Amino acid sequence: MTIATPILFDCDPGHDDAIALVMAHRSPAIKLLGVTTTCGNAEVKKTTANALRILEYIGAGDVPVAQGCHRPLARSLVLGTADGPSGLEGSPYLPQATIKPVDQHAVDFLADKLRASPEPILVVATGPLSNIGLMILKHRDVLPKIKELIWMGGVFYRKSEIITPTEFNAFCDPEALKIVLDSGVPILMVGLDVTMQVLIEAPQYAELATIDTPLGKLVNDWLLFYEKLHRNSMGVGGAMHDPLALALAIDPTLVRTRPAHIGVDLTGTYAFGATVADFWSERGEKDNARIAHEVDADRFFKLMFDLLGD
Ligand code: RIB
Ligand code: CA
After folding, report:
1. Which residues place a Cβ less than 5 A from the ion ligand 2?
2. Is 241 a catalytic site residue?
3. Is residue 167 within 6 Å of ligand 1 at its C-beta?
4. Which residues of the chain fall below pLDDT 50?
5. Residue 214 to residues 42, 94, 256: CA-CA distances in angstroms?
6. What is the pTM of this model?
7. How far is the CA of 41 from the centre of ligand 2 (A)?
8. Is 10 left (phi over 0), alpha (psi -120 to 50) or beta?
9. Which residue among the candidates 25, 105, 230, 241 is catalytic per the annotation?
10. What pLDDT does 280 receive?
11. pLDDT tens digits along 238-270
């Protein structure tokens, strides 16, 4: 009997966040205590509306959703374009939600859930860290209740031309990232180094086509829209950034990690928001995160499709 791991999920749905949300709800290994939303892939009102409509559609309308930051903590608002004007294009038949978010800001909702828990809780964050950073500033007492922050963000190895020195979630709110990195909270960083190794290409679409359910169709339609920016700009399929981060709450052995001190550039012109790792302690600073640097893509996709299937 699997004992479900309680998690709090902070996200900016967003197509890949949406698939991660579906996986979290459908996994017997996860108990979704709450969802909080932030700006990033779209304005926070849209990411909140998307979180609500996804949860209601998949039968998880009882999971509380708390809306969060409408802009980054310091820099000006940056919005992604990969997910279209609504933040979740490609499924016009997905109804708007009838359920509403809780009447509490995400930052206070997260803190209350952490305080109320008898045990430290896993927090999975798949967007900019504005809510997490602000919670750390406002509710420092809850930090010991964060078992680990699994964050999709950052990039460390320039293995090929498709890796930029900055990653979107870090770039959107680098000041929030610095607050989190300096907080002492245990962090597992799931960056482009591994997420760009789990791309949706023909074999994955073929596997998805075997899931002959409304959910299978919905995810397929999401992926066909989501992949456009990747295909046009990098010539590759859509990357399962956030689903991989969420999957590590279910099976942390999907990746290999190594400790490092990670800094974030807050003054650069071309590298503003870049995450800079020191694997050899050359800066003499204490390691502040574990970095995922290898992924078992085949096992990840098996887990993902098992969760999306019947
Ligand atoms: O860089 C990838 C990240 O940016 C993912 O979380 C995706 O949803 C976008 O927010
Ligand atoms: Ca995201």
Report:
1. 12, 14, 17, 126-127, 242
2. yes
3. yes
4. 162
5. 25, 10, 34
6. 0.97
7. 7
8. beta
9. 241
10. 86
11. 999 999 999 999 999 999 999 999 999 999 887
